[in-house]
């Protein structure tokens, strides 16, 4: 192994997913030099095994479900999806798992790319073992950012490795539709992949340990999605965990805590994530390998003045768009500290404070129906000690919903802080509601008073008119 001479940069980033790319981009925009290290594909999990391929698989399923509820169109879309075409379209959106375009983007913004495995080697120092055995040493004048993301966690079941189960990666990159698929886990990955593969022709059995789906959202979100999955032909079983799993020939055999025996062609475990920090050299700077990185609101790792943990590795909000938001905050903080700014704007909603991680995280679950939320649920707001009121509206009462789909089923809830009369959180469930979430995000982040929202007039007849119904319901409840 040959060691090259040390290369010095202002900022060194470990991980070239969307988060790491944005940290490096913000550094370059501030006039700092930046290098980024990646052991797999530039573009990361989101581009090749998560957001993009999963949504490419889901879009035809959701579009068909919507079309089947539109008079004059429903009879034309009763047949099966063209699975080959859907998978080919998914491959297009992953660039066939090639990262040439992403590499070109990095070159365009002036960020140096080092292929290989990067590890911390003491403060402000990173070593990179290249694919051909070469060794690079990178030194950072100002900051090193760890943006290595997370990996799927498999349960500790005897013989699980021999079963060769799917994780989220196999679920989004599979080249054929399994006849029978068991999905374990009722979180976002579980319900989205159950939706996609059931629509593509699999017979899906969804096993959920708890009482319902999407436990971090309002309870009605999981209830409506479970109902729709059942109507689509999936077998949704709550209160059921996997006791054992084996592969007998080509068949997966699952036994559950309820005593059931299920046979399938594949099994997907969507049961949690762990940080990819086990082999990045944390021990060389006094941190524990494999741990989540504890950071302040500027994303700087606790106890350091040079190390940043940005994106999923800090466990604040495991979402691509939230990680990119953190990258923008971290990039601004790194640039300000490099310029010698004596006092950063780290107060609530300040330029160097990732406030939204705590107060206004938006998320859309791309199922049928869609679920979207921002901010706190009713339970979270009450647990935080806020004096709040939940206001609920049946989305089918909105004219735009009736035009969107016959038999439209959905629900909206806003959580009003009774002291400030601003919104602590909003949740929507129903066809097409994903596009409503940003309006709710603006209301929550902007702390827009309810009496000012009266003057934000929704266009008629759109589903957005639910905002007027929510405000009326709050007024009538006072």
TrEMBL record:
This is NAD(P)/FAD-dependent oxidoreductase. The keyword NAD applies. The lineage of its organism: Bacteria, Bacillati, Actinomycetota, Actinomycetes, Kitasatosporales. Keywords: FAD, Flavoprotein, NAD. Belongs to the class-I pyridine nucleotide-disulfide oxidoreductase family. It comes from Streptomyces ortus. Pfam families: Pyr_redox_2 (PF07992), Pyr_redox_dim (PF02852). Residues 9-321 form the FAD/NAD(P)-binding domain. The keyword Isomerase does not apply. Residues 361-467 form the Pyridine nucleotide-disulphide oxidoreductase dimerisation domain. Its cofactor is FAD. InterPro entries: Class-I_Pyr_Nuc-Dis_Oxidored (IPR050151), FAD/NAD-bd_sf (IPR036188), FAD/NAD-binding_dom (IPR023753), FAD/NAD-linked_Rdtase_dimer_sf (IPR016156), Pyr_nuc-diS_OxRdtase (IPR001100), Pyr_nucl-diS_OxRdtase_dimer (IPR004099).
């Amino acid at each position: 192994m040959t060691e090259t001479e040390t290369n010095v940069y202002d900022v060194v980033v470990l991980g070239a997913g969307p988060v790491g790319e944005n940290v490096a981009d913000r550094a370059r925009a501030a006039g700092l030099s930046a290098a980024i290290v990646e052991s797999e594909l530039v573009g990361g999990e989101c581009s090749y095994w998560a957001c993009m391929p999963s949504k490419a698989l889901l879009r035809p399923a959701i579009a068909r479900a919507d079309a089947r509820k539109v008079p004059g169109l429903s009879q034309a879309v009763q047949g099966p999806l063209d699975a080959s075409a859907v998978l080919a379209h998914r491959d297009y959106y992953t660039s066939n798992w090639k990262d040439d375009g992403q590499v070109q983007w990095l070159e365009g913004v002036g960020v140096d790319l080092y292929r290989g495995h990067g590890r911390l080697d003491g403060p402000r120092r990173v070593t990179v073992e290249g694919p051909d055995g070469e060794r690079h040493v990178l030194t950072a004048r100002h900051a090193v950012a760890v943006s290595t993301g997370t990996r799927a966690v498999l349960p500790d079941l005897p013989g699980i490795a021999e079963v060769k189960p799917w994780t989220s990666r196999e679920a989004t990159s599979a080249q054929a539709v399994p006849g029978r698929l068991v999905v374990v886990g009722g979180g976002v990955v579980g319900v989205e992949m159950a939706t996609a593969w059931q629509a593509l022709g699999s017979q899906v059995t969804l096993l959920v340990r708890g009482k319902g789906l999407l436990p971090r959202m309002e309870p009605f979100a999981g209830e409506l999605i479970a109902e729709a999955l059942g109507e689509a032909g999936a077998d949704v079983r709550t209160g059921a965990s996997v006791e054992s799993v084996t592969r007998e020939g080509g068949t997966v055999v699952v036994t559950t805590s309820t005593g059931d025996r299920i046979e399938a062609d594949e099994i997907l475990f969507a049961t949690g994530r762990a940080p990819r920090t086990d082999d990045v050299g944390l021990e060389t700077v006094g941190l524990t390998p494999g741990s989540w990185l504890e950071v302040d609101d500027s994303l700087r790792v606790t106890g350091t003045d040079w190390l940043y943990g940005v994106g999923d590795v800090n466990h604040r909000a495991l979402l691509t768009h939230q990680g990119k938001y953190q990258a923008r905050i971290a990039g601004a903080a790194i640039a300000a500290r490099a310029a010698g700014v004596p006092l950063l704007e780290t107060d609530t909603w300040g330029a160097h404070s990732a406030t939204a991680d705590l107060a206004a995280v938006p998320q859309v679950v791309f199922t049928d129906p869609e679920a979207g939320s921002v901010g706190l649920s009713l339970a979270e707001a009450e647990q935080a000690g806020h004096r709040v009121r939940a206001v609920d509206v049946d989305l089918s009462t909105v004219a735009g919903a009736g035009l969107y789909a016959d038999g439209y089923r959905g629900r909206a809830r806003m959580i009003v802080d009774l002291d400030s009369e601003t919104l602590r959180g909003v949740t929507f469930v129903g066809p097409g509601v994903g596009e409503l979430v940003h309006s709710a995000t603006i209301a929550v982040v902007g702390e827009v008073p309810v009496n000012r929202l009266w003057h934000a007039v929704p266009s008629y007849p759109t589903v957005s008119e639910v905002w007027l119904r929510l405000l009326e319901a709050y007024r009538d409840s006072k």
